[in-house]
């Protein structure tokens, strides 16, 4: 009998804890996108809920931007928001969330 072994999904090779962390990160990113839909990706990934609460500090900036791109299916215009519009948007974000932290800074 030449029965082929069942193929494993790529996800099954990733530790369960890492899969759960990524699921939490995606959920937090979706929530932040719901609250602040026009916030640029580069600013969104610097928010405390993404970096600290969802363990985003464990990922590189490029990886976080890729995750935001996967989650956010909205077509975004190329370029940056003007500084005035960005400042108005930042005012809507709670001050405790706006603190930008270094990748090496974490609660551990």
Description:
With 108 residues, this protein is mostly helical. The protein has one domain (16-72, 80-98). Helices cover 51% and strands 0% of the residues. It contains six helices and no strands. The longest helix is centred in the N-terminal third of the chain and has 20 residues, at 16-35. The protein starts with 15 loop residues before the first helix and ends in a 10-residue tail after the last helix. The model is unreliable at 101-108 (pLDDT under 50).
Task: Explain briefly what this protein structure is.
The chain is mainly alpha-helical. Helices cover 51% and strands 0% of the residues.
Mean pLDDT: 78
Radius of gyration: 17 Å
Q: What's the number of domains?
A: 1
User: Would you count the extended β strands for me?
Assistant: 0
Distance between the termini: 53 Å
Low-confidence stretches: 101-108
Number of helical segments with 4 or more residues: 6
Pattern of helices and strands: HHHHHH
Residue share in helix: 40-55%
Q: How are the elements arranged and paired?
A:
Elements: H1 16-35, H2 41-44, H3 48-53, H4 61-71, H5 83-92, H6 95-98
Any key phrases for this structure?
single chain, 51% helix, 108 residues, elongated, mainly alpha, 6 helices
């Amino acid at each position: 009998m030449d029965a082929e072994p069942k193929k494993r999904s790529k996800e099954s090779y990733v530790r369960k804890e890492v899969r759960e962390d990524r699921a939490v990160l995606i959920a937090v990113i979706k929530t932040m996108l719901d609250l602040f839909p026009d916030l640029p990706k580069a600013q969104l990934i610097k928010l405390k809920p993404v970096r600290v609460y969802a363990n985003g500090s464990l990922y590189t900036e490029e990886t976080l931007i890729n995750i935001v791109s996967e989650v956010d299916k909205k077509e975004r215009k190329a370029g940056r928001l003007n500084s005035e519009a960005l400042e108005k948007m930042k005012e809507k974000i709670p001050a405790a969330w706006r603190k930008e932290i270094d990748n090496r800074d974490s609660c551990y």
